[in-house]
Write a structure and sequence with these properties.
Blueprint: H1 6-30, H2 34-38, H3 48-76, H4 83-111, H5 114-117, H6 123-162
Helix pairs in contact: 1-3, 3-4, 4-6
Length: 163
């Protein structure tokens, strides 16, 4: 298996995080009509609740991405086990849980819509709930990593005082 350097790995992650942020901004500019893009020719109109939930989802994702960029910046400076990074990871975790709540609400709104009630399409409901589950699971994983980093930071601080 090919192994890349730590510097290159952090650099790639940093660039991908910036690309993700730019993609979110582009999506935000056209989110009002993304339902028609997802289901062309279906005659479905974007649901107001779905469109209204999209913008908070984008904002939450941008906050998480900003924290990730700050975390990667600290890692690139070899400042890994510091309380600041624990706070960044904690924020990322909470943003994942916030996304899960927003997507759950969006799924419920799509299920209760007139289009779904008329039997036109239940697919968005399932997609939103799957995304909500994935966000919640990711939040749990990030939370566990935060607890590990927090413990390692405490051990490092204790060792720094010992020497």
């Amino acid at each position: 298996m090919m192994k890349i350097s730590k510097t290159l790995s952090v650099g790639i992650s940093f660039v991908l995080s910036l690309i993700f942020a730019l993609a979110l901004l582009v999506i935000g500019a056209v989110a009002w009509n993304y339902t028609a893009v997802l289901f062309p020719g279906s005659g479905l109109q974007p649901l107001p609740a779905v469109v209204m939930a999209t913008y908070p989802e984008i904002i939450v994702a941008l906050v998480a991405d900003a924290m990730l960029i700050k975390l990667l910046h600290n890692v690139s400076r070899e400042s890994v086990f510091i309380p600041e990074n624990v706070a960044y990871i904690r924020t990322i975790s909470w943003m994942c849980f916030a996304e899960a709540l927003l997507f759950t609400g969006e799924g419920v709104a799509s299920l209760m819509s007139e289009q779904t009630a008329a039997g036109q399409n239940r697919f968005p409901f399932a997609v939103f709930l799957i995304i909500a589950f994935a966000c919640a699971f990711m939040g749990l994983i990030v939370r566990v990593v935060k607890n590990i980093i927090e413990q390692a930071t405490a051990i490092k601080a204790e060792n720094d005082f010992t020497v």
